[in-house]
Amino acid sequence: MPQRLLIRLVDAEYAITRFTIGSAIPEWLPGPGFWTVSSSREEMTLVCRAARVPSSVQSSLGWRCLRIEQHFSFDVPGVLASVLDPLTTAGVGIFANSTFSTDYVFVAGSDLEKALQALKEYGHEITT
Q: Which Pfam families match (predicted)?
């Protein structure tokens, strides 16, 4: 596990939205910044910049995005845990997503300063 990670605070507010299974992926989803679609047997979840989400969509707004800047192979243990552990200790709830190359951790905007402080105290470097 890496001792110190470089974590970028993405300069945008994000929304986590919920759709029923079988819903069409909305045309407003793709665009700048991170966005993703996850589907399970219970629901379909979309994450994207909050500015794109219509007010009529069931959403949790005000999320801030932290992106791990380094890239690690899948067999390196503990990368995501080294971010989640200090956030858990600080009492910060998270919503996590991973891509092939890296991980994204979303924290409520109201917890952002507490989250950044916890990550710095753990030894991670925060950049914008």
A: A9CJY8-like_N (PF21631), ACT_7 (PF13840)
The reported pLDDT for the residue numbered 112 is: 98
pLDDT of residue 23: 94
Taking Cα atoms as reference points, which of 45, 36, 41, 39 lies closest to residue 18? 45
The pTM (predicted TM-score) of the whole model is 0.92
- The Cα–Cα gap between 57 and 59 comes to 6
Letter string b/e over residues 101-125, b meaning 16 or more CB atoms within 10 A of that residue's CB? ebbbbbbbeebbeebbebbeebebe
CA atoms within 13 A on the CB side of 62: 7
**Residues comprising the chain, all counted:** 128
Predicted confidence at residue 48, as pLDDT, reads 98
User: What domains sit in the chain, N to C, each tagged with a CATH number?
Assistant: 6-127 (3.30.2130.10)
Rg, Å, the chain Cα set: 15
Positions in the chain short of pLDDT 70: 1-3
